[in-house]
Amino acid sequence: MSRDLTSSSYATGHASDAATGHAAPVYDRIGVGYASVRRPDHRWATRIDASLGDARTVLNLGAGTGAYEPEGRTLVAVEPSLRMRVQRGPRSAPCVVASAERLPFDDQSFDAVMAVLTVHHWTDLEAGIAELQRVARRFSLVTYDMDVQREFWFTRDYVPEIAEAECSRVPSIERLTKLLGPCEVTELPIWHDFTDGFMTAFWRRPEAYLDPAIRRACSAFALTDAQAVDRGVARLREDLASGAWQRRYADLASRDHIDAGFRLITGESPHAARTEASA
Fold first, then answer.
1. Paired residues of 142 in beta bridges
2. 266 in the Ramachandran plot: left (φ > 0), alpha (ψ -120 to 50) or beta?
3. Element holding 85 (H helix, E strand)
């Protein structure tokens, strides 16, 4: 690695907007109380941890408040948003102020890199992918497929503007896998009692969408036209009060989980493959 990452001055230092990308101002605005709503779900945590294999050193890109950071490994976090960094717990890994597109680490510094629900915030996807493959031997990414998510009942029937906003910034699975090269894509289900409060987490608990604090902790709401969101929430409130929602989506009551489009993408950096071949 190119720096002493345990240095508190580096972990808590300031960085320019160019260095940290546009995710920082977004989460500095919407990240109030984020950690209380976006609590990691243990089932996802288990799968993400397993996907890292025997990696001893791990880089967490877009680390946020520290959700899904595995224990028992040497971990370094990268997070541009001050509001998110200050919500990291006292036992969290050291956190570097940087962006995915410009990582201050030497080639192949880490055994693995993880990036959970962050690639859609990167200003330059190609640069971010190139950087994560440069600094780590293997990768584990969590993202979502908008072809699936646009059919989620809240988006489809109440705020279709969310899909319009999301599709403009969420890279397709096809584009991601093309940039990453050979990789494995697996589904990450959303259970009815899921604890990580992103937009589709409350698919069987619709009353949650009426809570401004829950909506504020989700970038899909924050980056969609506020009037469109307010109109959709008002319609949902009316449908819940009249029983129309319960009748329309009665089949959800018996379901344990759904496929909301979330995918775990894993693979090996081509840099690591070339290094092993030349060894």
1. 116, 264
2. beta
3. helix 82-85
